[in-house]
Amino acid sequence: MKNLKYELRRLNIVSVMFVAILLLFINIVVWCSVGSPVYTLHFVSSRVPTLPLWLYGLLDFLSFALLGISLGAALGEKCPASEVDKYRGGFYFVIGVTLAYLHHAFFFSCHLFFISFICAVLQCVFFVVAVVNFYKVSRISTISLILGGIWSSYLLFFSLVCFLFM
Predict the structure, then answer these.
(1) What domain range includes position 91?
(2) Full-model pTM
């Protein structure tokens, strides 16, 4: 607990806010370019129970905010002993976030549920590897990545159910 309080005092708020706002902006751009998920969620909800659209959007927004906090906290850490883990974890993190955006496009725009399921599986794998690397850098980034990754596990389950029953 002392390490977490120490990290909170040393946290670089500027880098955390910058990365979180950047990821949220990219998420909004992806949502606008892919189109509204209303049609897809309405189409899917006839056979599979889904979250209401407002809750889906809120949780997606919160997930990307947590992912941005995670990357910003890791990149803002100034410990030279963990530079390799920081950039290795950042590399896996960027691949995982890219897969999250691709999942959105495949699921809502193309209705390719199997490909979106594969994207969600790979996304979860890359986030787990990023958690292992970020754990050596910052506990704050690890905790926020785990919390943001919970949404990825829901998307994995939801994509699988849609693939199997659609």
Answers:
(1) 2-25+52-165
(2) 0.87
pLDDT in tens, the chain (166 residues): 457 677 777 777 888 889 899 999 998 898 888 877 777 877 787 778 888 888 988 999 999 999 999 998 888 887 766 788 888 999 999 999 999 999 999 998 888 999 999 999 999 999 999 999 998 888 888 999 999 989 999 999 999 998 888 7
Q: Which residues are within 8 A (CB) of 28 and not within 5 positions of it... i.e. 6 or more apart? A: none
User: Domain for residue 44, yes or no?
Assistant: no
Cα gap 105→21, rounded to integer Å: 20
| CA pair distance 137, 52, nearest whole angstrom | 37
Q: Is 44 exposed, middle or buried (0-12, 13-18, 19+ CB in 10 A)?
A: buried
Amino acid of residue 49: P
Whole-number Å distance between alpha carbons of 126 and 150: 13
